[in-house]
Specification:
Number of helices: 8
Structural class: alpha+beta
Order of helices and strands: EHEEEHEEEHHEEEHEEEEHEHEEEHE
Largest sheet: 10 strands, mixed
Length: 365
């Protein structure tokens, strides 16, 4: 296996899988990110040899030297995607090609070896197939897939690693927010920013999320579900939440979302919702939106709804915003009709309840 293209993965089936009865009990209420399947996919990279030793194998711990570069200089990227159970018992992936492209782009930004997109797709497909019994059947649940790559060369030197491990693990999940959250309250971070121009904001790397944790902890202390960040230059314009993109819905039915200028993650859910909204006849603007304008529009009634979106949380209404200098409710504080309509349209496609005219679904079995 080389970096020029994919070859067939070797299968090493787990000899001690979770018993069926125990698995079924776990799937009744899996929560989010706590229940893991029996297998994982791994592929290794080394300079001169390229990508090699691709496997589907039993999920297990890595053995890494204390000098492994990922521990010291943070060369790490990941993706988030889901496999959905179809009404006929089959399963599908949603726009996996978009995840493969974004993963490759993230690798380039972090000076890591880019994984061929077909290798990414093959690893995800085969892991879902072998762990198909872990896909939940309850409404709103799915099999969450976490492809990631880490630098594995052992060296205390600031340089791109010569070696990498790519891995995919899978987790049976329910709703991202406890209780399903009809609407969330968000905290405006004024002390921290998520990303700056020229930084890694549009890459999906662990450092972006580590940098958001202090702000998220502050949000939790203030009784909020999530944090929202402003731009790093003027501290005026809304960018995104700790792990989600954000949309605004106005009284004329139009939508607005911050533009992708290099500091915001190009969300696949975000892109899908823009397409769906325009197909429903709604105007969507990708333009900056100032926090003071957000408060003024909420007070005047011009802003009717706001929602966050991402693979994990899907579409989540924002009911209130709190902060040191801002505190307001959006609409009636609940899920608005446009938000509800867009969420239903997206979920109906992902779960195979409506025709997929975009070719977004890849059926696996």
């Amino acid at each position: 296996m080389s970096d020029s293209g994919p070859q067939t993965l070797v299968f090493e089936r787990n000899s001690n899988p979770v018993p069926a009865s125990e698995r079924e009990a776990l799937l009744q209420n899996p929560g989010f990110g706590r229940v893991f399947t029996d297998h994982m996919a791994t592929i290794r990279y080394s300079e001169g040899r390229g990508w090699h030793d691709g496997k589907i194998e039993a999920r297990k711990a890595f053995a890494l030297d204390p000098a492994t570069l990922v521990f010291h200089y943070g060369q790490e990227i990941f993706e988030g995607m889901k496999a959905y159970r179809l009404p006929d018992g089959g399963a599908t992936l949603f726009r996996p090609d978009a995840n493969a492209r974004r993963f490759r782009n993230s690798a380039t930004r972090l000076a890591m070896a880019p994984l061929p997109e077909e290798l990414f797709l093959e690893s995800v497909r085969e892991l879902v197939k072998i762990d198909r019994d872990w896909i939940p059947t309850t409404d709103g649940a799915a099999l969450y897939l976490r492809p990631f790559m880490i630098a594995t060369e052992s060296l205390l030197g600031v340089k791109p690693s010569a070696d990498y491990i790519y891995c995919v693990i899978a987790s049976s999940v329910g709703a991202y927010f406890k209780g399903g959250a009809s609407a969330v309250t968000i905290w405006l971070s004024e002390n921290y920013t998520r990303a700056a121009p020229g930084g890694t904001g549009e890459a999906k790397c662990g450092g972006n999320y580590a940098a958001s944790l202090s702000a998220q902890a502050e949000a939790t202390r203030e009784g909020c579900d999530q944090v929202v960040f402003l731009d790093a230059v003027e501290r005026r314009f809304v960018e995104e939440l700790g792990g989600m993109n954000v949309f605004f819905v106005f009284d004329d039915g139009s939508l607005q979302t911050p533009p992708l200028t290099g500091t915001i993650l190009p969300g696949i859910t975000r892109d899908s919702l823009i397409i769906l909204a325009r197909e429903l006849g709604l105007t969507v603007r990708e333009e900056p939106y100032a926090i003071d304008q957000w408060q003024a529009d909420a007070a005047s009634g011009r802003l009717r709804e706001a929602f966050a979106c991402g693979t994990a949380a899907v579409v989540t209404p924002i009911g209130k915003l709190k902060g040191r200098t801002h505190n307001f409710t959006i609409g009636d504080g609940g899920a608005g009709p446009v938000t509800t309509r867009l969420k239903a349209a997206l979920l109906d496609i992902q779960n195979g309840r409506t025709p997929d005219k975009h070719g977004w679904l890849e059926r696996l079995f």
